[in-house]
Write a structure and sequence with these properties.
Radius of gyration: 34 Å
Number of helices: 4
Distance between the termini: 53 Å
Order of helices and strands: HHEHEEEH
Strand content: 15-25%
Largest sheet: 4 strands, antiparallel
Helix content: 55-70%
Shape: rod-shaped
Number of strands: 4
Structural class: alpha+beta
C-alpha cells in the first residue's frame, strides 16, 4: 500500500523526478511479486517435493519388509581414535549386535546390525527391516516425514525467491540514488559555474 500510495502521489506532483517515479514503480512491482510469486513458488516446490517423496516412500514400503530379529551377542567394536559428537551420541543410543532373523524367503540369516541399547541384551527380540533378499536396510520413509520435508522445501524456496526480489529491489534503488546524486552534481556545477567559491567572484 505504501508503494501504491507513493506512486499515486508522484503521478501529478510538479516536484517529482523521473527517478522518483521509477523507484515507486519498483517498490510496487516488488510488493506484487512478494504477494504472488513467493507463495506460488513455495506452494509449487512443496507440492512437487511431496509428490516425489511420497512416491519414494511408497516404493520403500513395498520393497522393505519388517521381521523380528533376536540378539545373539554384542558385536565386537574395535578401538578407534577420537569420534565426532554425532557418533558418540549415536553410540549412547544404539549398539551393534550380532542378531538372527528370517529372510522373506524363509531362510535364516545372521549378521551385525544396530539396535537400541535397551534391545541389545542377548535373547532380546527387536524389529528389523530387510529388503526382499533379506539384507538389513533402514526403515521406509513415512508419509509424515515426506510431508515435513516437503514443507521445509517449500518454505526454503519461498524464502530464496523473496530474498532475491528484495535484493534486486535494493540494487535497483541504489542505482537510482547514484544517478540522482550524479544529476544533482551536474546541475549544481552548471548553475554555480567554474568561478563559484573564488574570492571576489561577482564583485
Amino acid at each position: 500500500m505504501r508503494a501504491a500510495t507513493g506512486l499515486w502521489r508522484w503521478r501529478h506532483n510538479p516536484l517529482r523526478r523521473t527517478t522518483d517515479l521509477v523507484e515507486a514503480w519498483i517498490a510496487l512491482v516488488a510488493i506484487v511479486l512478494l504477494c504472488t510469486a513467493v507463495p506460488l513458488t513455495g506452494w509449487a516446490t512443496g507440492t512437487s517435493a511431496y509428490g516425489s517423496l511420497s512416491r519414494a516412500a511408497r516404493a520403500q514400503q513395498a520393497q522393505r519388509l519388517p521381521t523380528t530379529a533376536r540378539v545373539v551377542r554384542l558385536a565386537h567394536t574395535p578401538a578407534s581414535g577420537p569420534r565426532s559428537v554425532e557418533a558418540a551420541g549415536e553410540e549412547r543410543l544404539r549398539r551393534s549386535v550380532v542378531a538372527r532373523w528370517t529372510a522373506p524367503d524363509g531362510s535364516p540369516r545372521t549378521g551385525t546390525v544396530a539396535t537400541a541399547r535397551q534391545h541389545s541384551a542377548p535373547g532380546t527380540a527387536f524389529r528389523l527391516w530387510t529388503d526382499r533378499d533379506g539384507r538389513p536396510v533402514a526403515p521406509p520413509m513415512q508419509r509424515g516425514t515426506a510431508r515435513a520435508h516437503a514443507v521445509v522445501a517449500g518454505l526454503t524456496a519461498a524464502l530464496l525467491v523473496g530474498s532475491l526480489v528484495e535484493l534486486v529491489r535494493r540494487l535497483a534503488v541504489r542505482r537510482l540514488v547514484v544517478r540522482r546524486y550524479a544529476r544533482l552534481d551536474r546541475a549544481w556545477a552548471a548553475a554555480a559555474g567554474p568561478d563559484w567559491g573564488r574570492t571576489g567572484t561577482g564583485s
